[in-house]
Amino acid sequence: MEELLYSKSLAGENFAGVHPALLNALIKCDIGHVWSYGGDRYSLSAIECFQNVFKQVAGVHFTFNGTGANIFGLSTVVRGFHAVLCSETAHIYCDESTSPEALVGCRLLPVASENGKMIPEAIEEKIKRIGVPHAAQVKVITITESTEVGTVYSLNELREISRIARKHGLLLYMDVARLYNAAATLGCSLADLTSGVGIDVLSLGGPKNGMMFGEAVVFFNADAYHSSAYLLKRSTQLISKMRFVSSQFEAMLTDDLGLQIARYTNSLAQELAMKLKRFNQITITRPVQANAVFAILPESWIDELRTVLYFHRWNDTIHEVRLICSFDLNSTDIDRFVASIEKLVERSVYSE
Asked: Is the pLDDT of residue 348 over 90?
């Protein structure tokens, strides 16, 4: 595992370093003394960028990490008797321990999904007990775009979920680490994917697109934003040296850097999927719509291939793995991975 420190991987963007443009933004803001807790010019400029890019923005807060951003963001829209609907594969449900329930006090209700995307009829089914005092009251629908399995909701699919939410007086919360990838795939703007479909609160990740750390919680709903500053502090997410997060977001939103990175990583995933499809022994299990490829590999290959470019096992029952393309990978890396597969194929032929 120590060798991983000096090589690349397909394990995910959290394994990668910092994009040079974002590292440069950090270096440039590391000069002198500025106002703390968000009063600095970098944070104010970043918020202006959010307003220009996302439209109809009521306010923005910056946080340390994704789980903290969700705890804070959800705390602005739910109370202790409320429930939040999410996909059964959502990060907030599967990979944030009991944080939302323990620290926000709400209940998470998983909704049946197809390729990671919530089924509208399943959402309607979960809403049936609104008004029944014995049941947690559904208040929020949370959407992951792109999904945990690398698929992307179309704008029409998002509008349909929004229609259901408005019909029942619910709020829409979007929890995204790869929003730029979804926008790149759909060929739409970040505003189209958020304010344009009626999102109330957006939790926007940074590290999955090349940042060192930090998240942004963007409010389109003025009522949710109203008391958010107090809830930010209560959620332990108020950053003292905020410029080191906000400056990265400003760089990400300037000249469409975030979308440029996403288009590149999406294209690498398409290239990887295309080259894997040449092998009869490999099955691509999900539509490749962002920067992730999910595939079933022969079990005997997995450990050896992980020494070439490390990756995560996803479903050991069927030997499904997840291959993520980050900004610092290139076609040479993919070809090296594919060449290792070719050697495994040759070896299996000779052993028969």
From this structure: no
Q: Which of 16, 40, 33 lies closest to 246 in space, CA to CA?
A: 40
CATH topology of domain 2-15+258-351: Aspartate Aminotransferase, domain 1 (3.90.1150)
CATH class of domain segment(s) 20-255: alpha beta
Residue 64's alpha-carbon distances to 169, 213, 235, 321, 343, in angstroms, are 31, 7, 11, 29, 43
In terms of DSSP H, where are the helices of 168-316?
Answer: 179-186, 190-193, 222-226, 228-234, 243-253, 257-276, 299-306
Per-residue DSSP letter, 180: H
Q: What is the DSSP string of 72-89?
A: HHHHTT--TTEEEEEETT
Could you tell me the residue ranges of all domains in the chain? 2-15+258-351, 20-255
Please write the tens of the pLDDT for every residue from 225-280.
Answer: 999 999 999 999 999 999 999 999 999 999 999 999 999 999 999 999 999 999 99
The mean pLDDT value of the chain amounts to 96
pLDDT tens-digit series, residues 179-192: 999 999 999 999 99
pLDDT tens digits, residue range 69-79? 999 999 999 99
Query: Which residue did the predictor score with more confidence, 45 or 4?
Result: 45
β strands within 96-247, DSSP E: 107-111, 113-114, 117-118, 137-143, 171-176, 201-205, 215-219
- Beta partners for residue 63, in sequence order: 215
**CA pair distance 76, 73, nearest whole angstrom:** 6
Distance CA 345, CA 351 (A): 10
Long-range contacts of 181-184 (CB under 8 A, 24+ apart): 181/146, 181/152, 181/209, 181/262, 181/265, 181/266, 181/290, 181/291, 182/145, 182/146, 182/152, 182/153, 182/289, 182/290, 183/259, 183/262, 184/259, 184/262, 184/263, 184/266
Strand order in the sheet with 107-111: 59-63, 215-219, 201-205, 171-176, 137-143, 82-87, 107-111
**pTM greater than 0.85:** yes
Closest Cα partner for 201 from 186, 214, 215? 215
